[in-house]
Write a structure and sequence with these properties.
Metallo-beta-lactamase, Chain A; 7-stranded mixed sheet; 4-stranded mixed sheet; 25% helix
Length: 231
């Protein structure tokens, strides 16, 4: 789709992901935006990528954009374009992000009471112990899908040489893992991390979507459990 070379994947009833190349330190670590069509017909967008004309046309074919979530303090760069394109939508930010992005106006914060439109379909909370990240995690109940952003990396499927080197240096090689950056720089309270990990594991999920590289299509709960077992 267009110059951005988006790859759109239909994952389940009412659930899509938009995959796009994303460079970090000269390595394509991948980027991903997720789209949920709620039973009301409105769209929930998670971690928006830049909005091209073709992407906008595709979204219009799915339904009306009602919610746009910037899920942590790092994934927010493209939200301004969506605010201009969808002025009637609600824009929800991770705690601390509105203070970082004073150039835009968010509707509210993630982690507070969820909109009634989500009732019975999406659960969410802000993962504890990492205040510099403040990532909100989401559970799409109809598809049994856990939606993360940076809390897990997965370079398991056919990584390039650059990706293998990146995964080795960031301690995420071989299986879904928590990055070295998270472990050594962003985690401030291991007890809060453990509590939040247990709260995630209480959800009945199988698939895991994450921002960078490969989706975990099956066995996601066990993969998450193993990644967080030493916290």
């Amino acid at each position: 789709m267009g110059a951005h070379k988006d790859r759109i994947r239909d994952l389940a009833e009412g659930l899509w992901t938009v995959e796009r190349s994303h460079g970090f330190l000269g390595v394509d670590v991948g980027g991903r935006m997720n789209v949920i069509r709620l039973s009301s017909g409105g769209l929930f967008i998670h971690s928006p990528v830049s909005l091209s004309g073709e992407l906008g046309e595709w979204l219009a074919g799915l339904g009306e954009v009602k919610f746009v979530a910037s899920p942590n303090r790092f994934h927010h760069i493209h939200v301004g374009g969506y605010m201009r394109a969808y002025p009637g939508a609600l824009f929800l930010a991770a705690p601390g992000l509105p203070e970082k992005r004073r150039d835009v106006t968010f509707t509210g914060l993630l982690g507070e009471t969820a909109p009634s439109d989500w009732d019975g379909e999406i659960e969410h909370f802000v993962f504890g112990g990492m205040p510099l990240l403040n990532e909100a995690v989401f559970f799409h109940k109809p598809s049994r899908t856990l939606i993360l952003t940076d809390l897990l990396f997965n370079f398991s499927l056919d990584p390039t040489l650059g990706q293998r080197v990146f995964a080795l240096l960031d301690c995420v090689r071989g299986r879904p893992s928590v990055s070295m950056l998270m472990r050594h720089f962003l985690m401030k309270n291991k007890a809060a991390v453990r509590e939040s990990a247990d709260r995630v594991l209480a959800w009945d999920f199988d698939r895991v979507l994450l921002a960078h590289k490969d989706i975990i299509e099956n066995g996601g709960k066990e993969a998450f459990r193993l990644a967080y077992e030493d916290f």
